Amino acid sequence: LGASAYARNQVWRDDLLLWHDTVTKSPGKARPHLNRGNAFMKLGRYDRALGDYQRAVELDPAYAQAWYNRGLIYAIAKQYALARNDFKKAAELKPEYISAVINLGNTYNDTGEYLAAIEAYTQALRIDSSDANALCNRGLAYYRLGDRTNALKDYNQCLAADSTFINGYLNRGLLFLSEDLNPSALSDLDRYISVNKYNPRAYYYRSQALLKLGDTVSAGEDLKVYNSLSGSK
Q1: Considering only CA atoms, which of 125, 124, 62, 137 is closest in space to residue 93?
Q2: Measured between alpha carbons, how far is residue 89 from residues 82, 169, 212 in Å?
């Protein structure tokens, strides 16, 4: 795994050198700044990425992707007001930019403004009614509002649209768990963990389903994995 990560980062460093050279030769073009920003972002150098996205926006104010990518940096930094402005601008410039609308919803979901989040995800679903990400995230907003009927409906539609969208299994599994529908919860959490083996919360939640079903041995094993992954003692 270490070798793989190093090889991937090396590619990104090579990418950074390529776009740095392009920016040096064409400093007045927005696209090289955007692409160098992408290379910085992949390396986790968010401050440098932000600078390049800012420059791309200045050079081409109609460049929707530059606004969108700058919004991602702001969202990572939890500067939600700035992120929302940029996602809205990206969607204004490119009305079919569904990722911008979904991420706008995510900023509201992250700050507990669930009605605004639902409105944004619904707007995204007008662009693509089968977008699994929008359906899953809207379901989460409904769930947090206490509307479990609409949450379950969205989770079911999400997984019908894309059976490989594993966050849908996690979220639906938690809903089932909260309703004491433990066999269904266990099935969904099993599916999630079969793909994502490194989320400690998933093992914790599955341990709770197993305990409710009387399988204390398997529950104990899941708690050991949870403690190992989360660093708990």
Answers
A1: 62
A2: 11, 32, 48
Q: Fill in the amino acid letter for 20.
A: H
Which among 172, 215, 219, 169 has a CA at the least distance from the CA of 195? 169
First vs last C-alpha separation in the chain: 26
User: Are residues 212 and 180 in contact, defined by beta-carbon separation less than 8 angstroms?
Assistant: yes
At 170 the three-state DSSP class reads helix
Q: What is the pLDDT of residue 9?
A: 54
Give pLDDT tens digits for 181-214. 999 999 999 999 999 999 999 999 999 999 999 9
Tokens of 99: 């990722």
CA–CA distance, 58 with 60 (Å, rounded to integer): 6
DSSP 117: H
For 220, half-sphere exposure in the C-beta direction (CA atoms, 13 angstrom radius) is 4
Amino acid 136 reads C
Q: Map 185-227 to HEC letters.
A: HHHHHHHHHHHCCCCHHHHHHHHHHHHHCCCHHHHHHHHHHHH
Contact 102, 109 (CB under 8 A): no
The alpha helices in 77-131, defined as continuous H runs, are: 80-93, 98-110, 114-127
Q: What is the pLDDT of residues 13-50, one digit of tens each?
A: 677 777 677 788 888 999 999 999 999 999 899 999 99
Give pLDDT tens digits for 128-181.
999 999 999 999 999 999 999 999 999 999 999 999 999 999 999 999 999 999
